[in-house]
Amino acid sequence: MTEPKHCILVGAPIDSGQKRAGCLMGPAAYRTAGLARTLNELGHTVEDRGDIALPALAPAQCANPAVHSLAETVGWTRELATAVEAACPEGLPITLGGDHSLALGSVAGAAAHAARAGRPLFVLWLDAHTDFHTPTTTQSGNLHGTPVAYIAGRDGFEAFPPFPAPVPGERICMFGIRSVDPAEHAALLENDIEINDMRVLDEHGIVKPLRGFLDRVAAANGLLHVSLDVDFLDPAIAPAVGTTVPGGATFREAHLVMEHLHESGLVTSLDLVELNPFLDERGRTARLMVDLVASLMGRKVFDRPTRSYA
Hints:
With 310 residues, the chain is of the alpha/beta class. It has helices spanning 26-32, 35-41, 70-87, 103-117, 147-152, 182-188, 198-204, 207-219, 251-264, 284-296, and strands spanning 6-12, 45-51, 92-97, 121-126, 172-177, 194-197, 223-229, 267-273.
């Protein structure tokens, strides 16, 4: 029997971390796809706190001329960190994105809560990309490629609030990686982050590395933040993302990850990021993401409904 949770939905209509418009519609798409209803049907309570709003912007500067929308991204980071930190003691915050720059704020909020609770924060990064650039190393200028560097305490984030209690590399696990820039690769070689790229998962399977990481979280009495990017999934099943990389997780692999996360009972906060409804096919990606959340929250394989996309 699933222990009922109080799920707190926090909308993050953030588009500033990249240049392809549409992610700001993500929170509405998750609501339309029935996220709250699905969680209720699984026995959980749901509180939808609506979408956070961008505050009045303070000036922000970066020496890298490629960086764009810096002031907006810093503003979103501050607001979302506050919202998630406030939600963590009251239930399971689910941040509805929005591009992956939202994790600059959501993980900061979870880290602040973990530090106050005196427990270590662990991060599971389900993504095609490592997002280990800093504002000074990114060539695209897209700040959705920087959250893990911020979380891990890398230099170059002077425009942002100091990250509360940076997360050591051994407490960060990347899953599904298959696109890494040279500068990120070089920096990762100097870090202890566990990187499970698709070759690792092909050779060893999904379960072994995931269980190993979850065992470490449990042994440390840690809190676990899961950041789920649409491009973790293969674009054949999840087309609604502006950063498609072939060879992602299959439908069954993704559900297996979610079911193991549910069985662990360790997840304390969750991001759903990079959904661009403008690129979707009759809502299929939004529905798949909602189905994955359902698996994380207790739906079993034999409970999964038949679905038509016609």
